[in-house]
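A protein record pairs a chain with a discrete description of its three-dimensional fold. The following entry can be read in just this way.
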Amino acid sequence: MTARDRAPFPGDAAGERDALNRDVSLLGRLLGDVIREQEGDAGFDLVEEYRGATKALRSGDPAPAEFGEAGGALLARTRRLPLAQARLLARAFTAYFHLVNGAEEHQRLRVLRRREREGGGEPRQESLADVMLGAARAGIPAERVRELLGRWSVEPVFTAHPTEARRRSVLHRLARLAERVAERDDPTRTPSERERLVERLREEVEALWLTDELHNRAPTVLDEVRNGLYYFENALWHALPRLQRELGAALARSYPGEPVPERPFLRFGSWIGGDRDGNPFVTARLTRQVLRLHKELALDLYEGDLLELQRHLGVAVAGDRLPAALARALEGDAAAVPDGETQRQFASEPYRRKLAHMLARCRAAQRLNAAALRDELELEQTELDLQRRRDSLWGRSTTTDEPRPSDEDTAYAHPRELLADLRALAEGLREQGARRLADGEVRDLVWRAQAFGFHLARLDLRQHSGVHAAAVSEVLARAGMEPDYLGLGEEERTDRLLEAIRDPRPVVAERLGYAESTAELLAVFRAARELQEEFGADAVGAYIVSMTAGVSDVLAPLFLAKEEGLFDPGDAERPPASAIDVVPLFETIDDLRHCADLMRRLVRTPLYRRQLLARGGVQQVMLGYSDSNKDGGFAAANWALYCAQRDLARVFREEGITLQLFHGRGGAIGRGGGPTTRAIRAQPPGALDGRLRLTEQGEVAFARYGHPDIAHRHLEQMSAAVLEASLAPEGAAAPRSEWLEAMQAIAATAREAYRSLVYGDPRFLEYFRRATPIDVVTELRIGSRPARRKASARIEDLRAIPWVFAWTQSRHGLPGWYGLGSAIRARLESAPGAEAELREMYESWPFFRSLAENAQLSLGKADRAVAALYAELAGEEGRPVFAAVAGEWERTLAAVARVTGHDGLLASSPVLQRSIQLRNPYVDPLSFVQLSLLPRLRDSEEGAEADDLARVVALTINGIAAGLQNTG
């Protein structure tokens, strides 16, 4: 059989009738054709050789403990490959996974549509309609539903945490490929049209092959902002009104007569350009630029919607029948900006006349914002050239006109002015009986104006508690109030801060000439106040304090906020006023254990009570999933987070304060990842109470929000899960006391096992450095933030993302399971009847079920045979470490089997199980190339050869991430 006769990258032959397998087969064949055309038959044959060899390695047991002699021979063969051939293999299998991932995404949409078609009138599972119907059938009264909907809030917060390894150019190619694949499903297409579609697909695959996979430079913060804004334009702008309408339909079906809350339950946040913890590139000035970019997109989107409305609302109305609300609005328009041409053009179409005025105000605001942005960016910095950025961001040119003399008077100065005009349109339409028009696209735009304003997403600000302490120390010392704040104990620090906050006189004085770091921190608070004045109160969201360990860590930023006019404690005659939420972030196991007591002390502080009074009696608390895992391991971190939520909910309930939990979840299991709905259901009773705020980042953000329909489904499932959990009868999911005792013991043993390896074994750090590609991961140009908090090799100073990323690449997956096996075995050996108890916990307690399922997912994506090859990179000294890892691996597999009652991993998720089995042989060539090149790279000296080696290793990192659909 010649190279031209073979089918490159075939799908599963047994399922050729399945649409997904047809897509994968076609895309694989096209990729093979492109490789043959671009690299010749020799290149194609090399790829085929490795595909066959790695499939043969797994032809028996799909999860072998080792590859044996055949694996060693293939690794030796790979080490002899010229670098160009290694690069070809890496590119081929990386491209394959990009295509497969796109096909699987489209298959998800197919399945969703089929289920809805075949639903027989019943709402699809995990939808708003499903939850509402379930509530009605369960007899939950309308009053309770109405009360919950009044406070219901779901807020994804996008972060710039660098876990998306693909370039935006590659993502753009993949989006185009997805469109072409979707077009093939149209049953009305003729044979010739289908043929042309295949050629278009071939063109896109060729373009993907010829597109550079790697970043040539680390992204700037503004690059990260552009990536984040993509989701708003592409998906979120459209998803929000769609979900609001689905809520209305669900209420109409299950609770007839119940109104849809006026304000959308969805809102969005962002850390991109506001998170300065460990990122020296995020400055006060940059934060201003970020919100101007947000406003630029918001105004552009409003302009498009207003133009569409103007085309839509060609409603003719006689002058004597003009609705009163619209007449008043038009009179105000004419007085503010007389425009005879508009009056004549739309003489009998008052809604179009009104919309013409709204468009003029929107465009004036665009010109003013563009001019301010140009000033902020200082165009002599060519990398920040405004026009290039705008064109690359939106794919089209937008206005670059200079502001006009009248713009200051004409432009929308605040989103509430736009909202007032939209409401005038709606009231006018209702008054003349056009209720469907009022409740159609006009209402969609009202919802958008309420949720997005001019800021699109609330920009959170974050800084480390130590930075606040250093700045406060300098400010108080220069003011003569405290010579050595940093030398004080916690109680004394708290007392000094309370005194400074109560003092109505300003403490900060610019003439005193503060250190650069202090001056920059003060500028952040000043910028927050000014941005809220321009963009609205929602423009700047929470102020998050990393590594909060004491009450003073929360009071320090509150003091700085007071100095910059964001907080006024008031007095006996004057109520307090505050424009900012100060949010403690608890990250380590010990901090999570003590956070409830700390928060009790804080909210019992009379002055801080005034801050809470000014903020509507709501206190937000953030929980860190990543660092707690790195600190104490998978099981201990999950248990500490559960207990923290439970204890915080109890404290806030007793203190009469509303708690808003903010979940700092990552993408990988080791950073709090996993299915969102499962995580929501696993929370302690009373912890949600209708509110969910959580981070979305990196490759997870693209997977969830890169396609409009998938974004809608993800938001739908997440929102429905919050409703369902909040409507559950009190105590319905409360675990038994003996389960809590069992989990406490399991967590303690798991933490001991984890820390004895990671922090207690002196050989572990060197093993980690040699048996994973951590040295390359930390150099990847995928984020603007440094990978380490300090210039040290300590694990404590390494950020959680590269920590998890490196273990994922080497197929250990250690942060997602290590310690659980020892803990469950100890429980089984020490407690009579433990196996039955653990089985019952798995069946009946959502938290424990989530723990076991997530461990299975981590173990399923890990691979012992590949990890054993990486372990060889650590040499003889690393063997005891890998022996410990392998032993715990076996213990965890056995433990999971006994707890779940399943013989194999992921037996309850056969689709996922099969997907991993099918993907592994195609991930293996990437691992073999990476394994062969890491020693060469580490032994090479700086120069062109080292650069070439590093780029190919980086390409394998991208490919493995695509194959496993996980980075960090």
